[in-house]
Amino acid sequence: MESKGKVGIVGSGLIGKSWAMIFASVGYNVVLFDIDSKQVEAAIESIRNELKHFESEGTLRGDKLSAEEQAKLITGTSSLQECVKDCVYIQECVPENLELKIKVWSEVDKMVTENTILASSTSCIVPSKISADLKNKERFIVAHPCNPPYHTPMVELVPAPWTNQDTRTKTRQIMAEAGQGPVSLSRELPGFVLNRMQYALLNECFRLIKDEVVSPQDLDVVMKDGMGMRYAFMGPMETIHLNADGTQNYCDRYGHTIYNVSSDSGPIPTAWRQETEDDKATVERISSLMCETVPLEQLADRRLWRDKRLAALAKLKRSMQ
User: Fold this and answer.
1) How far from 69 is each of 12, 48, 115, 187, 280, CA to CA, in Å?
2) Contacts of residue 75, Cβ cutoff 8 Å, sequence gap at least 6
């Protein structure tokens, strides 16, 4: 397969490694950067092992390249210049710290060509805060993945006020080509879409558990054996469209009930801020209850369990398309 160009990945952690594998799966030459050469070497070895594992499990992405062929497309470097030179696309994956991201991008900004798309994996920092002082800020965009990115392909594309239309369009095309599920926002806002939806759900979860309406374990059953079953194949808007004779009929039938129940939901739980003893006690109680399901020393094993099931679900969804 002819190379589709060069992609630079800045940061070799979980998200950076995932992006490297995603781009290599469709034929991009990928250069993975980190400041520590030993960390880069470890990341490259980890990628090779993961690709082989995915291939053996039948969950490898990309239908034209083997795990070995994909691995050969990914190289590592501790030179930022070597990583970003002549790239068609750069994906930054450094820790979620605004000052660090600004520092990294100020360096990258001096090295890129006039056609390179500049993307950040940030989960909550709006792109205008990162890119305000960049020379190439019109080509800056947030491409925020879901976690783990390799098995959950949704990616939010969030423009800054100055991001040009060409960057928005090309980034969406690149993501779709790479097998991601692009979600294009018309403008930036705190939390983007995924986290705004997630936080709204978590707020209600905290209220219900704090008020001892339901246990954390039973609440999780509502999602994993109820709502989550259908949400794995269709979103909430298609769900309501199908649950009645279209969206208009759903609103006609259930609108008042939804409004009345929602009015009873209450304020944002202050426990998130943990500023009072009562708030701290709430978090401590919920944490203790969750540790009954997954003790802290078992978190690593449970994450592997999660990733295997997400991989199997992703494989099933691809087979049904």
Assistant:
1) 20, 10, 27, 38, 51
2) 29, 30, 31, 32, 44
Q: Tell me how far apart the alpha carbons of residues 183 and 193 are, in angstroms, rounded to a whole number.
A: 9
The answer to whether the beta carbons of residues 152 and 146 sit under 8 Å apart is: yes
Distance (Å, whole) CA 102 – CA 132: 9
Residue for token pair 């960057």 = 167
Residue 124 has pLDDT above 70, yes or no: yes
pLDDT averaged over every residue in the chain: 96
CA distances from 279 to 74, 203, 274, 285, 286 (A): 47, 14, 5, 10, 11
Please give the order of strands across the beta sheet that includes 74-77. 74-77, 29-33, 6-10, 89-92, 117-120, 140-145, 154-159, 181-184
* pLDDT tens for each residue of 189-200: 999 999 999 999
Q: Is the pTM of this model over 0.85?
A: yes
- CA–CA gap between residue 87 and residue 161 (Å, rounded): 24
Give the separation between CA 127 and CA 164, rounded to whole angstroms: 13
Dihedral sign of CA atoms 187, 87, 66, 310 in order: negative
